[in-house]
Amino acid sequence: MRFFADLHIHSPHSIACSRDLNPENLCRWGQLKGIFVIGSGDFTHPLWLKELQEKLEEDEGRLFALRKELIPVKVPSSCRAQVRFLLSGEISCIYQKAGKTRKVHALVFVPDFTSAVKLTERLAKIGSITSDGRPILKLDAKKLLEMVLEVSPEAMLVPAHVWTPHFSVLGAASAFSSVEECFEELTPYIYAVETGLSSDPAMNWRLSSLDGMRLISNSDAHSPAKLGREATIFDTDLSYGSIMAAIKTGKGLCGTVEYLPEKGKYHSDGHRSCGIRLTPRETIAHGFRCPACGKKITVGVLHRVEELADRPQGFKPPGTPPFHSVIPLQELIAETLKIGAGSKRVERIYFTMLEKLGNELAILLEKRYEEIAGASSVEIADAIVGVREGTIRIEPGYDGKFGSIRIE
């Protein structure tokens, strides 16, 4: 079965996350977006874990379905589908190693509530697991991997948004030069890395050290409507074991859906307070200091990839699956109309398109130009096709500021 999965999200217990995040809304938005397997997010938070246990029931594939009485009805018939949940969580490891402060975010998958409880109990002995849905712990990422493997041989750890400057394995601030430098002899148990919003597979292919690892993509959604801005495409049985096997071996992992990396808020170098965005060459010329105020520049993903790359731009390892670049539909509608993405008019057009054409990913990736134009407008159809063909102009994001698109 071919399906889209988004395995990295958050809960209402995470800082700066929507109160609307609950299993019912996630099930609804999963259908609207075309995401059929959703990471639970934040299973290490006791209140969220309790809610998941109350509202979800395990199926024959050891994924979890929303209890029938809770399944939302406010979904257009064109989008209705089964949605399953997979237990996942993100953990923030902040620690000293080799004389440097390391800040690494790790994505963890577990097969059942028993494993989730075991890991949660072990983490609670290290630090607080209640102050944030994403616990911030003084814990070496390698030690976390050891704990994950001890909890269940079927559990998995994936380095999250692997290039993000401040909280990742390869980001400029964490300063590991390879995944192996972080996880040492346990590196063979790192089967994949997450690309993050500011990079795509083409950027990751430039590092030969990542060749043995699959690339997966997820939204890191902080609200239900952000689901599916990135996703991983599988062609497997709808089961925990099959999904993990695909990530381990690549068989059944058919590619990813990628937020255009220039849209990501850490793609380029810059200093947001001064409104300064720089190319890597300009950053180096200014001594990694803001030319306006003299403070340190935040080195973005593009620059960091260039520092570590041992292959030229455009290199593609043989046998790697393809990827598809997207911009969320509501953003495209808003930019076409030159109005806010949260406006009632954008919402009305968005849901009209879903009712006529099906879920959002089908519209962005599959529907023909004529179908899209007929359900919306020629301008919106032009924008969607422009993203597919790579002709949309983007002002890159930097230092925590998302990039902006320009549709002429």
TrEMBL record:
Coiled coil: none
SUPFAM superfamilies, sorted: PHP domain-like
InterPro entries documented for this protein: Pol/histidinol_Pase-like
PANTHER family linked: PHOSPHOHYDROLASE, PHP FAMILY, PHOSPHOTRANSFERASE
Protein name: DNA helicase UvrD
